[in-house]
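Exercise 3.2. Students should predict the tertiary structure of the chain below and write it as structure tokens, then compare their answer with the key that follows.

Predict this chain's 3D structure.
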Amino acid sequence: MEQLFEYFNRKLIDTPIDLVRYKYAEIEWGGHALGLVGPRGVGKSTMLLQYIKMHLDVKDTLYVSADHLYFSSHTLVDLADRFYKMGGKHLFVDEIHKYEGWSVEVKQIFDSYSDLQLIISGSSILEITKGMADLSRRVPIYEMQGLSFREYLHLFHGIKMDAIDMDRLLQHKYVIPGVEHPLPLFNDYLRRGYYPFGRDVAYDIELLQVVAQTMESDIPMYLNANVSIGRKLKQLLMVVAESVPFKPVMQKLADVTGINRNYIQDYLMYMERAGMIAQLRDAVGGIRGLGKTEKVYLDNTNLIYALSPKRADIGNVRETFFMNQMRVVGDVMCSPVSDFLVDGMTFEIGGRKKGQKQISEVKNGYVVKDDIETGYANVLPLWAFGLLY
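Answer key:
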């Protein structure tokens, strides 16, 4: 067990606390248990270690990764029992989905040690959501996505500012401290700013590895499927990457990939939950996720440049950015007359010359323009939507 404490201490020493992610303030950290999920590489592990570093005593706290060699000959329950008897109060288990049968043991730990806080996290949103079903009423599950443009400015360039709300955005109260021309920074964000590891020299390779692990490991593991399914899923992702944004026609996707037509819709949903794609739905029922899929996008703009740089159509990049950032603060749905409908507001996305035609007769209609530094009236700069979280 000593090796786990040594691993924990090394991780804690290497954990920076200069940027705390947006999700941090939304989490009720004091509960008996909680789960944190999100796509690979968005900073979940770092945020858990930051909380420990800033608020807990290492004498009664332990952070472990479920894929540690320790668990080849020990169980989670054994660890929790030993840690508890040593006076442990806070147990953090990262990459929980990599531990076979984890949900049964997590439930046992939860029920057996009422004064031991248990916090788990993992990159397989599907697997954790399914595994936590029995505890869902008692254990909150928080979902985190990648960096906003605001967070990118802080992490990559040391530019600190608070997030703005929609009211301030609509009133044109958006200023980046010390930055007169935001567009060069914004364009860099679109290419490498969504993931915290975007500063790494080998970022392009690392991002492709994230994609491969998600498609070849995480989703097939959830489906209890073999390796061939992972290859088909990657093929489906590449078809999406070279076609976005598009309205999915299941039969055409089946013909191109060789996947049974009846499975295509499910696979797209799995890819969405794993942070690889985003599906824009209509407003049927008024609830996001229940409507019919009208368009399919890649999840974020970094994936566009990584998977299909030659097809990085500027219109697609703009829409992908808008949907990616806005979904954190509102329900983004397909507009019947324009591009997006968000909480009763209609948004038309375009470049500097974009006009008002599509929203001329719409109440609460806005034109969102790329390549402008400031807005006016109902015209808003695209980059400013990256300051919302």
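Discussion points: DSSP finds 14 helices and twelve strands in the chain. The chain has two domains: 2-143, 149-387.
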